[in-house]
């Protein structure tokens, strides 16, 4: 840990946080940015500075000029102080802080000038003051840290909203035991007429009452409680009302757990769709989404979310935007393949990237296997079983056809794969598609890759094919001691290995409704740096990464994983003015204190959209 922190340069001024082992962070052409600046009526001076910064940031691939991290700041301040009269008046200036730009050179600056919705300049406070005019709003940072707005590169806005608003919270912690869960459910049942569904939201691997206990405590209400989006437990009333009994077959890709007598135990793994749980209505979603976006994302400094929702959820986003009720969070929407017919979608000619900077089309997401321990597709039987190799939602052949179609039609593709067998088949599919239709900059992704790592050969294939791994650092928190103690277990959340090999994994919370608290990027930072589980154990601590890399994951690398690094993910001239002011500097506090850091101000599109009192 010492060496990791040593690298971060805690003197609060200018530090080179760039280790030099990353491949080119900034593939964006700064010349595009220059056109943008021209459109915004910038002066020749700013164009010069933008070009200068582009020169510093670009460099040849893998051979970045890192001899002088002061260079960008130096260029800016010299040019700006030499000819102050040419600077355009900024709409917003933030000054006197530690500005972690996350640019390719690891520049730390002091101030930022914003014109319209774009960053006009980054530099010393003195240099940026030349942008201040009578109409400029000034934010005094008073030494606080300014970062690019965080990007959550894999989450579910609709699922989070319904979880946040409509499910009975029964998470342990804050509850302590299965009896506590039972008491909360019983209390709710007493308030509702018999036959009314109760849906509870717990969290991963928490103690839960059995079906029998639920039956005794709440015999007349159908009850379903989630550990996660994958695993739920239902009472007998819920199964009865859903027409489920011992003869109900397992659904494709899922599993109804059964006891020795063949009766369902009440536990459904990737099979909750069999339960006739009433879903929140469209109107419910319209009501729940805006406050959820504000409370869970904006108030934590997250300014962009790559979201996967149902088609109805997407329609709700459209409606909210039309009404002007969508909070100022930039959304990129990826479509889950189970929700639509692929041929119909690709025949429309719609492609990844369509839309604008507020709402755009992301990827096609394919849910291929399940979760580790039960339904992830493996080569070895899951621990404690002799014949459970997990489940696949489709055959490798089907996946290949789908990937080929989506790839040929110009889509980015994300495939959910927790197990190595699923990962190999996904890579087979990507490989076949890339052979047939070569595309150097496809940025296809494997979601959950590196959470459970079994075989380095798969890493080699990922690297060769240029597929982006999307691990979830926040899930380190839920690692059980049971898993840690298993002989021959996979290596867990191999973040350091990924980064050392040149991958740029995007940060994300993938919290759905299960871990809403983990949407705060400081939660992921803490897990990525400290590697501790909620049970107090260390999870492969040699895979810890630096706070600076955790910041990169949640900014520039996330942007890159969504083809957006030319417009966001770092504080550089020409990029969108999406920023967060933090209460403390994550690069200076002890890792144990990361969770005490709060977003004090969130700025999106050059506007202050959240301010903490
Ligand atoms: Zn997800």
From TrEMBL:
Organism: uncultured marine microorganism
Keyword line: Hydrolase
Protein name: Putative metal-dependent hydrolase
Residue ranges annotated for the Amidohydrolase domain, each copy included: 138-610
One Pfam family in the UniProt entry: Amidohydro_3
InterPro entries per the UniProt record, alphabetical: Amidohydro_3, Metal-dep_hydrolase_composite, Metal_Hydrolase, YtcJ-like
GO molecular function, one term: hydrolase activity, acting on carbon-nitrogen (but not peptide) bonds
């Amino acid at each position: 840990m010492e060496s990791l922190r040593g690298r971060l340069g805690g003197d609060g001024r200018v530090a080179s946080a760039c280790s030099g082992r990353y491949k080119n962070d900034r593939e964006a052409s700064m010349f595009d940015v220059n056109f943008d600046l021209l459109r915004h009526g910038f002066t020749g001076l700013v164009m010069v500075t933008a070009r200068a910064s582009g020169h510093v940031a670009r460099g040849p691939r893998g051979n970045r000029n890192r001899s002088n991290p002061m260079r960008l700041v130096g260029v800016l301040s010299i040019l700006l102080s030499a000819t102050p009269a040419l600077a355009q008046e900024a709409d917003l200036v933030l000054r006197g802080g530690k500005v972690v730009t996350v640019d390719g050179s690891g520049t730390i600056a002091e101030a930022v000038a914003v014109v319209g919705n774009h960053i006009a300049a980054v530099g010393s406070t003195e240099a940026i003051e030349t942008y201040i005019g009578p109409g400029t709003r000034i934010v005094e940072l008073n030494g606080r840290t300014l970062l690019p707005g965080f990007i959550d590169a894999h989450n579910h806005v609709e699922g989070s909203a319904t979880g946040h608003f409509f499910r009975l919270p029964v998470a342990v912690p804050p509850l302590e035991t299965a009896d506590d869960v039972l008491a909360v459910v019983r209390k709710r049942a007493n308030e509702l007429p018999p036959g009314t569904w109760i849906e509870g939201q717990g969290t991963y691997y928490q103690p839960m009452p059995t079906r029998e206990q639920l039956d005794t405590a709440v015999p007349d209400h159908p009850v379903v409680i989630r550990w996660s989006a994958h695993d739920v437990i239902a009472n007998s009333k819920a199964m009865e009302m859903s027409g489920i009994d011992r003869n109900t077959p397992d659904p494709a890709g899922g599993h109804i757990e059964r006891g020795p007598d063949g009766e369902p135990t009440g536990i459904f793994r990737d099979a909750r769709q069999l339960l006739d749980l009433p879903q929140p209505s469209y109107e419910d979603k319209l009501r729940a989404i805006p406050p959820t976006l504000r409370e869970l994302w904006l108030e934590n400094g997250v300014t962009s979310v790559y979201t996967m929702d149902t088609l109805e959820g997407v329609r709700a986003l459209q409606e909210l935007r039309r009404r002007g009720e969508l909070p100022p969070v930039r959304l990129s929407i990826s479509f889950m393949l189970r929700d639509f017919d692929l041929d119909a979608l690709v025949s429309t000619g719609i492609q990844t990237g369509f839309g604008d900077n507020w709402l755009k089309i992301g990827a096609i997401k394919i849910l291929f296997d399940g979760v580790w321990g039960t339904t992830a597709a493996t080569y070895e039987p899951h621990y404690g079983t002799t014949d459970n190799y997990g489940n696949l939602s489709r055959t490798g052949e089907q996946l290949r056809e789908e990937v080929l179609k989506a790839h040929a039609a110009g889509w980015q593709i994300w495939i959910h794969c927790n197990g190595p067998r699923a990962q190999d088949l996904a890579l087979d599919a990507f490989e076949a598609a890339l052979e047939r239709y070569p595309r150097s900059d496809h940025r296809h992704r494997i979601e959950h890759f590196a959470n459970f790592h079994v075989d380095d050969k798969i890493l080699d294939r990922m690297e060769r094919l240029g597929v982006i791994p999307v691990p979830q650092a926040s899930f380190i928190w839920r690692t059980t001691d049971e898993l840690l103690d298993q002989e021959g277990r996979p290596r867990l959340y191999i973040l350091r290995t990924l980064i050392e090999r040149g991958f740029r994994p995007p940060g994300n919370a993938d919290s759905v409704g299960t871990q809403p608290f983990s949407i705060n990027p400081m939660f992921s930072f803490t897990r990525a740096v400290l590697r501790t589980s909620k049970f107090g154990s260390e999870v492969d601590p040699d895979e810890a990464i630096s706070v600076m890399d955790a910041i990169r994951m949640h900014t520039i690398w996330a942007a890159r994983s969504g083809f957006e690094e030319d417009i966001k993910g770092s504080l550089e001239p020409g990029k969108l003015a999406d920023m967060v002011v933090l209460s403390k500097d994550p690069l200076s506090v002890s890792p144990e204190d990361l969770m005490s850091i709060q977003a004090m101000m969130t700025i999106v599109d050059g506007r202050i959209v959240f301010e903490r009192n």
